[in-house]
Amino acid sequence: MSQKKVLIVGGGFAGARVAQDLTKAGFTNVTLVDRKDYFEVTYATLRSLVQLGPLSQRSRMAYADFITGDFVQGEVTHLSDREAILASGDTLGFDYLVVATGSRYTTLPLTKSHDGLALDDRHREFADWHDELEAGKNILIIGGGAVGVELAGEIAHAYPAKSVTLAEGNSRLLGELQPKAGQIAKAQLQKLGVTVLLDTMLQADDERLASADIVYSCIGVSPNTELMEEAFSSALDAARRIKVDASLRMEAHPHVFAIGDCANVPEGKLGYAADMQGAAVAKNIIRLRNGKAPRRYKPGPMMALVPVGPDQGVAQLPFGITTFKPLVGMKQKDLFIAKQFKNMGVKR
């Protein structure tokens, strides 16, 4: 049974974890497919913008240097019940499929690259963006979710002489977290000199857009599920996410799993959750190999650690909202780079 073919589409937190856990468990026919040739700890991308150097370099690693199964760089263009066809024309069959294609900010390739598909290209993207930021004086950030808040904090801390404005269309920041978290984040940003504009929807002709040297748009997250539309359109919900059952299998297709940002698991769309889902799916595939039924996945409560610059931040945990420095500092140390690679069996 360990010879069963497992195909994983998408090499982010979820997909890479499945690949590593299955090969560790003795599976010998595991293939990971991704458009790019490197893994990236996306927790670190925003600080990488202002801190080029060791941290930025450590946050990325070529799949070929650590994936213990097979890695294929390519894009899946057609997907059926038992095979995937790549843009190259190559066909990959499977007995088990894991769709872990993630999501993207359509206007912010800083977080997940649109075109930097080679590791060296991704490094160059950050060098170019860093140079652009160094030259800019008036910085406008649109969107007050976790990404916008963290980006504003990083820039304001690294460049106190720059004018940094954060515009949010709703009445508070961090709308995905409890209201208290947004209040704390606002105060921390203002302490760094950030101008926070709430209830502000910027139109195309707004003078604040015209006067900004750089505009970062941190809105418009879209799941990467276009490859499902041809053969599995009925498996997508209204938000274009893949519908899964309690064991993270696609409805009506028990040999197909979907995890991470592309799936409709009722859990925060965050890296740590994708990693946990990846670990759960690997265990379920192992159980199926051993003739056992898959187990239910229990989604966790919404938790987040949002740095607001390297010296402060806010955390939402099951017991409430906190700014307790040792706790917030857990992420500040290296933005969980070492922890994430350790989860995949890699020392970094």
What does the model show?
This protein is an alpha/beta fold and 348 residues long. The protein is built from ten helices and 20 strands. Helix content is 30%, strand content 22%. The mean pLDDT is 96.
Q: Proportion of β residues?
A: 15-25%
Quote the average pLDDT.
96
Through-space gap between termini: 33 Å
Large-scale geometry = globular
The count of DSSP E runs of length 2 or more, i.e. the number of strands, is: 20
Along the chain, the helix and strand elements come as EHEEHHEEEEEEEHEHEHEHEEEEHEEEHH
**CA-atom Rg in angstroms:** 20 Å
- What strand order characterises the main sheet? 5-2-1-9-17-16
Count of helical stretches:
10
Unreliable runs: none
Largest sheet: 6 strands, mixed
- Which bin fits the share of residues in helices? 25-40%
Structural class: alpha/beta
Gist?
By secondary structure, the protein is α/β, with parallel strands linked by helices. Helices cover 30% and strands 22% of the residues.
What is the secondary structure topology, with strand pairs?
Elements: E1 6-9, H1 13-24, E2 30-34, E3 38-40, H2 45-50, H3 54-58, E4 60-62, E5 70-73, E6 76-79, E7 83-86, E8 91-93, E9 96-99, E10 103-105, H4 119-135, E11 138-142, H5 146-158, E12 163-167, H6 179-191, E13 195-197, H7 207-211, E14 214-217, E15 221-223, E16 249-250, E17 253-258, H8 271-289, E18 304-307, E19 313-317, E20 320-322, H9 325-332, H10 337-343
Parallel strand pairs: 1-2, 1-9, 2-5, 9-17, 11-12, 11-14, 12-13
Antiparallel strand pairs: 3-4, 6-7, 7-8, 10-15, 16-17, 18-19, 19-20
Helix pairs in contact: 1-8, 5-6
